[in-house]
Amino acid sequence: MAILPQKDEEYLREKGFEYEVQQTPTAIGLILRNWSFPEQYDRTSADVLILIPPAYPLAQIDMFYTYPTVKLKNGVSPVNADQPLNFGDRTWQRWSRHHAWREGKDNIRSFITAMTLEINKGI
User: Phi/psi class of residue 88: alpha, beta or left (left: φ > 0; alpha: ψ in -120 to 50)?
Assistant: First the structure.
């Protein structure tokens, strides 16, 4: 049985994301491998974790996480990105970003678009 809706799987493949879905007893995580970070950051890439709530796509995806830790070039953590989260065998950096969720319209595609905008702000 697929963990993600077919539409999300198709989008991820269409965009050429290197990804995996990990299921733990308490959560489902979509891990995007080698996400590119713009020049404002201290690294060029990191893995990104998106936690999928049990009632998704009706329930909102909220926040994203990076591994390893990503900082701005000046050594400071991005705004609201300084808390850890244990998932799988790693400790991830939580990026606390919240967006309105349009039930029945929003999905992995719209969340990744919003996430990309947040990362590209470089703050």
Answer: left
- CA–CA gap between residue 63 and residue 49 (Å, rounded): 9
Pull the structure tokens for residue 86. Answer: 């244990």
E strand or H helix at 14, and its extent?
A: helix 6-14
CA distance 98 to 64: 10
CB 111 within 8 A of CB 61: yes
Cα–Cα–Cα angle for 75, 80, 85, nearest 5°? 95
User: Per residue in 55-75, pLDDT tens?
Assistant: 899 989 999 999 999 999 999
User: What pTM, to 2 d.p., does this model score?
Assistant: 0.94
